[in-house]
Write a structure and sequence with these properties.
With 192 residues, this protein is an all-alpha fold. Helix content is 66%, strand content 0%. The protein is built from eight helices and no strands. The chain starts with 8 loop residues before the first helix and ends in a 5-residue tail after the last helix.
């Protein structure tokens, strides 16, 4: 068991869930749904898929409750499940391609009220285009690089935590991040 298990509300909720208190899952979902959903939107690049995957992640958490062992941080375990769900969806999507009928609605949600003061329409358009370019460049990365950069940059996980999720070494994560940054630098050259 981890050192901080007595103080970690997520580990405590999982242990209660393990012992039959199904409502403990609601606590976990309340705390983690926004972060898991945000991560999955960035990982799969599709809001509808991300919403489904978020739900599937918590279903998988419930199914795995009896096998849960608090050996590492709860976030590492949870993002590992979310990542596996996303990987399965991407594999399925590659075998069953479809035509996207609408633009990513997530781009429209990136408005920050604190930044609205004295912006020009041209500035807004430029920011939106830049955000779309970054999202597209991240989605164009190979899966392993996209996974590493999303977990590191957007979820603030350490190399060791990402390694545990990805099933590789921390050095491999470092290499993946380096390669991802190189790809992004090339893809986004006109914006830098």
């Amino acid at each position: 068991m981890t050192q901080d298990a007595p103080d970690d509300p997520d580990i405590q909720a999982m242990l209660r869930l393990q012992h039959g208190e199904d409502l403990a899952l609601n606590e976990i979902m309340d705390r983690w749904t926004p972060r898991v959903s945000s991560y999955l939107i960035r990982y799969v690049g599709n809001e509808a898929d991300a919403a489904d995957l978020t739900q599937e992640t918590f279903v998988a958490v419930y199914r795995a409750r009896l096998n849960y062992r608090p050996k590492s941080k709860f976030s590492t375990w949870l993002f590992g499940i979310a990542t596996n769900q996303a990987r399965q969806r991407l594999r399925w999507r590659r075998r069953h391609p479809e035509v996207a009928l609408e633009l990513d609605r997530a781009a429209n949600r990136e408005e920050h009220p604190s930044l609205v003061q004295e912006r020009t329409p041209g500035h807004d358009v430029l920011q939106t285009e830049r955000a779309r370019a970054v999202r597209a460049a991240i989605l164009d990365l190979p899966d392993d690089l996209r996974e590493a950069v999303t977990l590191f940059e957007y979820e603030d996980l350490s190399h060791a935590e990402i390694a545990a999720i990805a099933g590789c070494s921390a050095k491999a994560v470092e290499t993946r991040l380096y390669r991802a940054r190189q790809h992004l630098r090339e893809s986004l050259a006109k914006w830098l």
